Amino acid sequence: MALNPHKLGVHKVLQYIPLNAIFDAPSKARLRKAVNIADLRLCAKARAHKMVFDYLDAGADDEISLRRGKDAYSELEMHFHILSGLKPPLDLSTKIFGQDVKLPFFGCPTAGNRMFHWEGESAAAKAAQHHGTLYGLSSLATTGITEIGKLTDGPKVFQLYVWKDRELVKEVLAKAKEGGFHAMALTVDFTWYGNRERDIRNDFSIPPKYSLNQIIEAIRKPAWTYDFLSHEPYTYACINTDVPADSLAAFVNSQLCPEFDWRDAEWLLGEWNMPSAVKGVCRPDDAIKAVETGFTTMWVSNHGARQLETSPATIDVLPSIREAVGPDVEIILDGGVQRGTDICKALALGADAVGVGKPYLYGLAAGGTEGVIKAYDILKTELDRAMGLLGTGTVDELKKRGPGLIKKRNGSVRDYPDRYAYERGYGGGII
Asked: Which parts of 9-104 are beta strand (E)?
C-alpha cells in the first residue's frame, strides 16, 4: 500500500505543534461576519479543501433536484395575521420522537463529519446540547457512539444504513441502545450510491489520493490541511474503529444491501423495539405502508437531492404525506432548508420537526463547534421572527393554523437566481 503522511506518523509529530490557531485566524474572522446560511457556505468554501467542500455542497447528476428543493420554498407565500399580541422570544419547544426539545429543528445525521473539521460529530453534538435539540448520528460517523453519549444528554437518533451482514446490524443497534439513543432512523433511499459528478471530477476519496491537484488545493487551504495532518486518520467509528475510512463510495457499494425489502424492515423493527423512523419517504402510499409495517415516524427526504436526480422537492410532497397518514403520525422533513422561514413553512404544512444538513455542515466546515452553534443561532432567530410576524406564538399553534397561512403561487423569475447566485451558493452547482 502507498505511503501517506498518516502512515508515516506525521500527525503524531504535528499534534504537538499547535499552529491551528494561526491558520484558523482568517476563518474565524470570516465566521464572525456571517449573517445567514449563505454566508456560512462561503466561509466553508474558503476554509475547506475543494474536494471536501464539493462533497458537502453537491447534488446528483445535473443538480436539478438540489435547485428545485430550494426553489420550492420561494413559491410558498406566508399570509400573516396582524395584531396577534406576541413578543419575542417565542416558545419554540416541541417534541421529537416523544422527547422534549427546545427547537423544532435539528442537524440531520451525516457521514464522515471529521473530513469537514477535526472536531467532526463532536461539534454537532455540542451544538445540539447547547441549543437543547435532537442530535442525529450517522452509522458512517467518524466519532463513536460512546463518545457522543458523553457530549450530549439530550435526545438522540441513530441513523442506520442497511448492511448485508445482519450480525453487524445487531451489533450496531445494541451499541446505540447502550449509548442512550432514543430512536432509530432507517435510511431507505441509499440502496445505490448517487451519481455525484463533482466528486468524480475532483477524484474524491477518503483519505485523499495525494494527486498533484489535491496537493495544490491542500496548500491553498492551510487551515483544513493542518487539521487533517495533525489529527488521527478517520475511521468509521460506529462500525469498526480498526477499519480505515477508505473511499466512501467503495465502502457503501460493498456493504449495502440493495435487495432489502419490507419484510427485512419488519425484522429490523423487531430488533430495535423503540421509536423508529423510515428516512427517505416521498410518496403517500409508501408512507401508509411504513405505518402498517410498524414505523412510528415518517421522515420525508430525498437524501439532500444527492441520490435520484429529478426526485421531487420534499416540501412539495409533504402535504400529501400528512393527509395520507393522518394527524397523529409524526413526520420529520429535510431537504432544501436554508432559512428559518423554510422551517416555518414546513411546520405549517405538516411537519412535526425539520432536519437540516448542509446548513450546519457549512458551519462545521467553517469553524467547528462555533460554526455549528452559529448555524443554529441563525436559523433559530429567523424562525422566531417568521413565526412572530406570521402571528403564531408556539409550534403547536403554527401546526394547527399552518395550512391556512401558507399559500402556493406560480413561480416568478424574481424568485429565482440572479447572475450573482452562484457566488451565494443558490442551488449548489450549475446555474
From this structure: 76-78, 94-96, 99-101
Give how far the C-alpha of residue 326 lies from the chain's centroid of Cα atoms, to the nearest Å: 26
Calpha distance 275→228 (Å, rounded): 37
Question: 303 an active-site residue?
Answer: yes
* Contact (Cβ atoms closer than 8 angstroms) between residue 116 and residue 48: yes
Q: Measured between alpha carbons, how far is 429 from 369 in angstroms, rounded to an integer? A: 26
- Report the pLDDT averaged over residues 34-62: 96
What local confidence, expressed as pLDDT, does residue 230 receive?
Answer: 93
Q: Which of 315, 258, 318, 309 is nearest to 283 (CA)?
A: 318
Task: Look at residue 73 and give its three-state secondary structure.
Answer: helix
The Cβ of residue 71 has, within 10 Å, a number of other Cβ atoms equal to 17
Q: Is 135 helix (H, G, I), strand (E, B) or coil?
A: strand
Phi, psi values for residue 332, rounded to 5°: -110, 140
12 is written with which cell numbers?
503524531
Give residue-wise pLDDT tens across range 335-391.
999 999 999 999 999 999 999 999 999 999 999 999 999 999 999 999 999 999 999
Residues 6+ apart with CB under 8 A from 412: none
Q: How is residue 247 written as a grid cell?
A: 473511499
Residue 167 pLDDT: 85
3-state secondary structure of 248: helix
Q: Which residue among the candidates 49, 131, 182, 303 is catalytic per the annotation?
A: 303
Q: How far apart are CA 36 and CA 139, in angstroms?
A: 29
Q: How many CB atoms lie within 10 A of CB 417?
A: 15
Residues 6+ apart with CB under 8 A from 382: 36, 339, 340, 341, 343
> Residue 388: which of 173, 87, 28 has the closest Cα?
87
Residue 129 contacts residue 373 (beta carbons within 8 Å)? no
Cα–Cα distance measured from residue 377 to residue 424, given in angstroms and rounded to the nearest whole number: 20
